[in-house]
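Students often ask what a holo structure prediction actually looks like on paper. The answer is less mysterious than it sounds. You provide the chain, you provide the ligand, and the output is a string of discrete structure tokens encoding the 3D arrangement of the protein together with adenosine-5'-triphosphate.
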Amino acid sequence: MIRFDAVSKNYPNGTTAVDGLSLELAEGGITVLVGPSGCGKTTTLRMVNRMVEPTAGTVSLRGQDIREVAAPELRRGIGYVIQHAGLFPHRTILDNVATVPLLLGWGKKKARARAAELLELVGLPATMAKRYPYQLSGGQQQRVGVARALGADPPVLLMDEPFSAVDPIVRGELQAEFLRLQKELHKTIVFVTHDIDEAIKLGDNIAVFRTGGKLAQFDTPERLLAHPADDFVADFVGQDRGIRRLSFVQAAGLPLREGPALPVTASVAEARALDEPWVLVVDDARRPLGWAEAAGLADAGTLADIPLAPLGHTFSLVGDSARAALDAALLSPSRLAVGVDAQGAVAGVADAYELSAAIAGTGGSLGAAPEAAGVAETAEAAGPQLVKGAADPAAAEDADGSGSNTGKTGGGDR
Ligand SMILES: Nc1ncnc2c1ncn2[C@@H]1O[C@H](COP(=O)(O)OP(=O)(O)OP(=O)(O)O)[C@@H](O)[C@H]1O
Ligand SMILES: [Mg+2]
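The corresponding structure tokens follow.
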């Protein structure tokens, strides 16, 4: 969709901002440009809407050399969002968002109606429409910036560190909101950040730049974590990439076993008879209630009569990642992670050792993009002892339908 062919940008002072960049950005996806300060991210971004003209090479949009399109016309189809939102301070929020439709000659009434629609789309209450930018928080201003960029419903969106100026909690909210919005809008987005975690969370593809405007690697987040091209990328990606890449492996494919589980109506004697250090107590719908420690059990009564140790957290076979599963094992008092199906019923248990062995055993599908691996394939790779939940076609379909095999759902832990 957007293509860079041997593109360079040299400034008269001798700076090479971008050096021989060849890159093809997919339509309808989020491509993140990431790298240290001064590596040419903003320059690359601005060459897409002709705010910066390349010294050499060609940038094309849908197969057309963008030099053949007049800049104003080109920019009509390209929204632009910058850090601090860049709002007009003397215009109301509504009028800020109505800017582009007004420029396009929509007429005041229609432009404002569109602006109101866009404010709702980015999650701002209508009551804010009449305020001025200084009366909004940084995060709210950033949402207005996104709404304004969407004014003419452009197919392409350029975003230059849009969430960098806000605190980590607000940034997390904005990122989640942004992914939700993109699911609806399917824009072709070029997103600049210097934060690799943000890149991994948001990007369908990531271009890592090194100083001097050179592309170091262009890959999916999961491949970047699993196979960094060189030491620079490995360093840039960070140390705990082994754990982080588990976010891209679906829990649906992990092998679980039955485990020691009893209904809460069972007697304490039955629990002791299992001869296990911990027994998982479930309700009448097989939903997990907690763990009973065998050593502490009295002689009489039912499991309803005894205090249970909390589960820590369970993980869902529909939508959660292997990272969530491993975390569940590490936090569980019994050291067993409890996997639940779409209804929240226990599908099985596994300890951290079993989980990591299974994850390692999936070999290729661990490194591969989840889109390619898919639920069924991951399940196959995990072998015959596969989980009930994941083998259940309804659960698998559900996971598919919810788009969880894009690796984006349950992505809070990404
Ligand atoms: N107009 C200019 N004249 C000369 N050099 C420039 C000009 N604009 C940018 N540069 C230089 O080009 C290089 C790339 O700049 P660019 O703004 O693309 O970096 P960046 O990756 O966006 O950095 P940051 O993360 O700090 O925003 C830098 O060394 C910068 O100093
Ligand atoms: Mg920049």
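Residues 252-362 form a domain with the CBS-domain fold (CATH 3.10.580.10).
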